C-alpha cells in the first residue's frame, strides 16, 4: 500500500450543526450538504488542502454503511492536528473554535517539545490540536 490520505470522515450526531460549526464557525469552504436523495447519503465535504477533504456524515449513516454498531461521540482516542505559522495564530484559531461552539480542552500554551499548542473538541467530541512547531514550518 502506498499511503495517501485524501478524505477524513467524522461521524456526527447532527449534520446541520456540524456544517454550521466547520463552515460558519471555522470558515472551511464547502458546497454544503449533498446526497440527500439517498437514504444514508447526506454528507458535507470541506476543502482542507489540495487533494485532502474533511467529510461530516451522520453517525447513523456510517454505522449503517459499515454494519458496525452505533456508538457514541468522539472519544479522544485520536486527534486531528492543524499546524499554523505562529503562536499568535494558534491563539486566533483557538478563539475562533471557541466562538464557533468548540469546547477548549487544553488552552494554548508552551509545550514540552518546544512548540506552542492547545486542544479543542468540536460539538461532536472530535479532538483537534492547534499547534505551532518551530521545527516544522507550515
From TrEMBL:
Residues 4-133 form the VOC domain. Signal peptide: none annotated. It comes from the Bacteria. PANTHER family: BLR2520 PROTEIN (PTHR36503:SF1). This is VOC family protein.
Amino acid at each position: 500500500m502506498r499511503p495517501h490520505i485524501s478524505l477524513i470522515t467524522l461521524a456526527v450526531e447532527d449534520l446541520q450543526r456540524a456544517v454550521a460549526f466547520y463552515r460558519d464557525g471555522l470558515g472551511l469552504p464547502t458546497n454544503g450538504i449533498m446526497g440527500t436523495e439517498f437514504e444514508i447519503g447526506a454528507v458535507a465535504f470541506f476543502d482542507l488542502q489540495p487533494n485532502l477533504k474533511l467529510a461530516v456524515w451522520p453517525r447513523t449513516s456510517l454505522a449503517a454503511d459499515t454494519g458496525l454498531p452505533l456508538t457514541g461521540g468522539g472519544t479522544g482516542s485520536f486527534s486531528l492536528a492543524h499546524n499554523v505559522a505562529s503562536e499568535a495564530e494558534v491563539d486566533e484559531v483557538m478563539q475562533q473554535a471557541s466562538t464557533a461552539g468548540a469546547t477548549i480542552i487544553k488552552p494554548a500554551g508552551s509545550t514540552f517539545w518546544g512548540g506552542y499548542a492547545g486542544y479543542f473538541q468540536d460539538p461532536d467530541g472530535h479532538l483537534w490540536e492547534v499547534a505551532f512547531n518551530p521545527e516544522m514550518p507550515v
